[in-house]
Predict the 3D structure of the following.
Amino acid sequence: MAALSVHLPDNRKHFAPGDILKANAAWQLDHAPRKIYLRLFWYTRGKGTEDIEVLSETVFDYPQAQETRQFAIALPQSPYSFNGKLVSLIWALELVTDNNETAARKEIVISPYGNEVDLLKHSSESLPA
């Protein structure tokens, strides 16, 4: 059975813009791939066309079939995670094998407010400073 996972410290999912995210990537595969990729990206969910942008990619060369590796990623200053009536912006980490046979995704929140910006709540008021 093949499995990939990203283990965040203390199961933390909320990060401030500019934080350094330090965590572990782990996998148990039937055979060792040539490479495993860890991607930091955002995507939109909701009405209309889904947008996606990969901001960084870490390559784990010559991985063993079963292994855990540490990584550190500098998180960007923007855009913030947000939830709206028509569209939401979600940040995620994705771990994928070089042949795209196996992948795992861990969603995170990037915001200076400790949680995603709720556009429904703030539609009639200004965002906090």
About this structure: The mean pLDDT is 91. DSSP finds no helices and ten strands in the chain. The two ends are 48 Å apart (CA to CA). The beta strands are 3-7, 14-15, 20-28, 35-46, 52-61, 66-74, 82-83, 87-97, 103-110, 117-118.
